[in-house]
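To whoever picks this up:

The nightly regression suite flagged FAD-dependent monooxygenase as changed. Nothing in the input moved, so I suspect the structure step. Input below, exactly as stored in the fixture:
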Amino acid sequence: MQHCDITIVGAGSAGLTLALLLAPLKLSIQLVEKGPAPEPAAAEFQRVSALNLASQRLFAQLGIWPGLSEQLAAYQQMEVWQADSFGRIGFSAEEQQLPALGWICDNEHIRQQLYQRVKQAPNVQCHFNSSIQRISQGEQNVALQLDSGELLLSRLLVAADGANSFVRESLQLPLTHWDYQHHALVATLTSTEPHQATARQVFWPDGPLALLPLPDSRQVSIVWSVPPERAQALQALSADDFARAVTAASQSVLGPLQLASTRQLIPLRMRYANQWVQGRVLLVADAAHSIHPLAGQGMNLGLMDVAALAELISEQLEQQLEFDCPRMLARYQRWRKSEAQSLILAMEAFKRGFSGGALLPKLLRSVGMTLLDQQGGLKQRMMALALGNQGDLPKCVRPDARRASGVVE
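Regenerated output under the current build:
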């Protein structure tokens, strides 16, 4: 039997980031992961995420940004348009007075970099290839029975074990969910024309296609969200026919494309836990919420969850209060549920707003995009939120935290 302060279930980017944030607080931490430990390897960009400025500041303060920056792609521009229409809007780092709008990173490479730092923390013990057999709560602790027979007792249990969270399901926490009626096709393609460090997204009546720049100037990662039947038909195409379909859907913005990887088909569902805290157990990141990838905010939202939780725990300890008190857990739930709700609603409105090909709605969308592109103030505010420069952010990722710590973007 092992006693500790906090057990984190899940060694994805959120779980590892939380362990690294909590390590300086001298708490004893156990990290449990059902899969193997991340191993150093070149980024393959099979699954990527877009990191905004808030996430970049977080990783810079944790000391992993130099290692990440060796294998990521910064993008200086974004182009969004409606297919077969005049509706178009563009964003640039120059107009925001920034060196980049964001970065496309390989998800596994993020885990690798985080884990290398976590291994250096003497108060963090990792249990990889470990499944949980049983969870039980008492007044003073939470007990985890691992498949190895080991028993972990902790004052606080954090579920960071993804969208299909075992912890959430074991505790039968209520979940609101709906099927987006989209499957995402994810693949890497080689382009004829260089991507020019530009992230692109074109909206079709049946769903959006995103082309995300990779470190190779002639490679992009695509996320093509379409109804399940069409996604399966596209998946079944030959490599050449699939590349031609993507070329046509992207309106040849990068010239003829060639498939450079396997294709992954991912069902898209919205999940939102109605209750993020039960006793001494709380949910973070995808265990608490999952959203449509059309705005590329899923990773950023999860990282802000763990940054907020670490901030609240740190404040409790600084005031010599119990870090696991119900009042603190309730503060975390109110704070992060509100942020998640806002983004979920925005993504749903965005998705529905661009669905369908009827002439009048299509015309209204095009006019709206054009007007937004011309409204400097509104456009700037919208971008500031997406970039992680506005909103109810944890202190360590706010823009003024960059200046105070000497982080250079």
